[in-house]
Amino acid sequence: MSRELSHRGPDDEGVCVWGNIGFGHRRLSIIDLSERGRQPMSNEDGTVWITYNGEIYNHLALREELQKKGHLYRSQTDTETIIHLYEEEGTGCLEYLDGEFAFSIWDANKKTLFCARDRLGTKPFYYYASERNFIFASEIKAILLHPDIRRQVDARVLSHYLSFSVSPAPFTLFKGIFKLEAGHYLSVDRDGRVIKKQYWDAIPKGKISCGEEEVVENIRVKVREAIAKRMMSDVPLGVFLSGGIDSSANLAFMSRLMDKPVKTFNVAVKESFAYDESNFAESVSREFHSEHYSLNIKFEDFRGVFDSLAYYTDEPLGDYACIPNFYLAKLAREKGVPVIQVGEGNDELFCGYPIYAAMLKLERFFYPLPCFIKNSLFRILKSIQGNSPHYSILQAAKNQEIFLGSSYLFSKEEKEDMFNASANLSGLEPSEDYVSGVYRNLLNKFPQAGLLDKMIYLDLKLRLPELLLMRADKMTMANSVEARLPYLDYQLVEYALSLPDKFKYRHAQGKYIFKKSLSGILPPEVVFQAKKGFAGNPVNIFNRDFRQYLAGLSKDTEPLWAEWFNPAVMKERLTLAPEKINFREGAKVWSLFVLMLWLKRFFLNK
Q1: CB–CB of 153/135 below 8 Å?
Q2: Distance between CA atoms of 1 and 140, rounded to whole angstroms?
Q3: Which terminus in the chain has less CB density within 10 A, N or C?
Q4: At residue 112, what are phi and psi to the nearest 5 degrees?
Q5: Span 54-64, pLDDT tens digits
């Protein structure tokens, strides 16, 4: 099972078994490259064992305190610090850890298994629990190798996937296999009982009152510290440089902290000029004297990943940018850089998505109107645009939640049209109810939350950890590269969540205060450029070759998906009529495409 994950750890492997308990580990050597860093790793007397994926950035400070308490170290790793901290604090150790991690600890004295995922969910943790077994892994494919596992699609989760482009935690599309939610831990006692608890949530304790210049300086300090922490490495590291403000800030601060040029990597999709930021990336590279590598990819390159995409993602991730990210990581590994800093998370913190601004305008100007006026305006808009008006306008017309997520795709009505009447979807939780539950949790703990707080919270609970961060993790690890995310430093996150809306969205401008904090550090044309989607959108590759591939894939997998979907409606959905294809409709086709890739990989090619 551990060898199935050799791409995540090509440098070493280890297996330890204690009766009916066993740990397997694949190592990507980053800190202490010697054999002393081998996992699974134990404490001094062999009563506490760990298998762990990630980095703890404050491990040296924790180490000093633990050594004062008499703990003996045999390595220079952060792994050993988790072990000793657990001995001191038990499950409370999580409050002290500053980093990105997923781990399991076997406590031989207590006969308990303790498992945890980091606060924001940057590292994956999957598990299967039954009366006989508790099986966990960083990727589902390893769990599937256990002889007691039957591969079954959880049809109830299909509806969520069509809504959100991913299955929301704790669900996966594999029936009986779950993912541990971000900011949670679970324990398995000697009787096999599984207890799960939340130890952190992305909810502000309150909104701070401070001046703009103070906030600007605080952001600069916190971003610089977050980036500096993530330069902890005994191997070369670099930056994915899209040319946008987030990745450019990574380079700007790293270049000041290194005594040699930072290695930077950029990818562009051929003929995707509207989304191509490579000219900005080259400009920023020259500004900060990085050692820059750029790559252009085309349909043939996408086609080369189709057969393995589902294998590396485990579940369908309805995000076209998975493939450009795969090639970026491949390029970094080829250039000898196994650790990369990336820019995910900042748009969520500082109102960087255009949809956030659109929703704020909708709430201000459209939502308060009387229902009969809203409904009339919606009918007029629909008569002009057909079925293409954004779902949020209809939601507002019905006085319902207008934001269901940045990746929300198929509406309730569209899904009802797609599913077979005979599909066994009893007990299905509507996606809208799932979103309502997330909002309810926020409002119970932070009643004064406004629309922007709600949008940020929903994306931090769903789209970010289960789609964007899994994209970053799976595509980099497919190439044996570790991604680090400075904008998800939990102290920076907590500070950003505490800022009033006026610092995030002002004068119709998102990321207002973050952009101001980078003024004078980055060139103005980079700071104030319009946001572009990374590497374009699926429409870029919807050519004749793709249509032929899609038709063949649909035919091959129809015996599987026809159990749930109406074949006639699906075939109409997959028709790529040029006059119908825009970004949103293209994303819907792509989500169905990767769903079929997943069915083919895990249910046809077992």
Answers
A1: no
A2: 10
A3: C
A4: -130, 150
A5: 999 999 999 99
